[in-house]
Amino acid sequence: MASSKLQALWNHPAGPKTIHFWAPTFKWGISIANVADFAKPTEKISYPQQVVITCTGIIWSRYSTVITPKNWNLFSVSLAMAGTGLYQLSRKIREDCFSDEKEVAAASVEG
Question: DSSP string spanning 37-69?
Answer without folding.
Answer: GGGS-GGG--HHHHHHHHHHHHHHHHHHHHSSS
